[in-house]
Structures are given as structure tokens and as C-alpha cells.
Amino acid sequence: MVCPTNDEITRLLEKYEVCLIRYAASMVKDVHQAKDIVQMTFIKYLKAADEAEIKNVHAWLYRVVQNHAFDFMRRKKKHKEKEDALKEELRTPQYGPDKKIDLKDAAERIHEILNEFKERDRSIVIMKIIEQKSYREISEKWDISIGNVGFILHNTLKKTGKIFLENENNLKSKQSEAKNE
Question: Is the pTM of this model over 0.85?
Fold first, then answer.
């Protein structure tokens, strides 16, 4: 439970640092990361030696370097997997020519649905979504309260979404039936 002296730390660094860096570098294939791992190991050693006696310092240092190297490789693997997934997602054309047509069709269908609503409700949606007007500006135009603007906007968008999804489901059913015939 005695903290190592500066001389003891210097002696341990001189004796083990280069070998530990080589050992870590052989696992992580990166000298700079290996140096960081060894540095973390010595910091951990100082904390551990202060709390309890380490009987076999050589074995303890190598084991901790190995554990830190394994942790690094696990983190690197997870990072690589996320990076690969992101690259794959970016390679997949989400907005290719066929998707642009789908978006254009969807926009046209939404416009048709909105045309079925009262002029005020349709106008509130257009002012808010397309023109990006504030609730205050919309309330002044239509001479209604700001709360009422929010209520009308919410209900109109909710109804529009519901009708849109129903139409999409009907369209898919008809396409499926046509394929089966």
C-alpha cells in the first residue's frame, strides 16, 4: 500500500517501457497507439501499487498492456463496423432517379389531398410548411388565435397523413392483385 517512489518508477520505465511498447504495437499495429496503451498501463500501475502490493510487476504490466490492447482492438472493430455500415448506406442510392419520381408522385398526391380541405386549413398548412410563416403571422392573416393555428395545422396534417397512407395501402393492394392475375 505504499506509492512507488520516483526512482522506482524511473527504474520500471527504463526496464519495461520499450518492451511493452513493442508488445502492444505487435497487437494493435500502431506505434502511437501502443505508446498510449503503455502510458495508460503505467498510470494504472501507480494507482494499483498505491492500493495494494503487486507481487509480480512484470506479469502485471504485460497483462494490463494486453487488456488495454484488446480493449483498443474491440473499439476499433466496432468503429470500423459502424464506418463500413455508413459507407454502405452512402453507396446505396436513396435519392436516385426512381426515388425522385416516388417523391414527386408523393408530393402530387399530398397536394391533391390538401385540395380536399377547406381553403383556410389548406392555406395554414401551406403558409407554415412551404412559406415557413410563424404561427403569429398565420393567426393575423386568418384572424384566429395562435393556439387555434396549431390545432388546425396539427389536425390537417394528421388527416392528410392518414388519407395518404390509406391511399398508399390501397395502391399497393391493387398492384399486388394485378400481379396475381
Answer: no
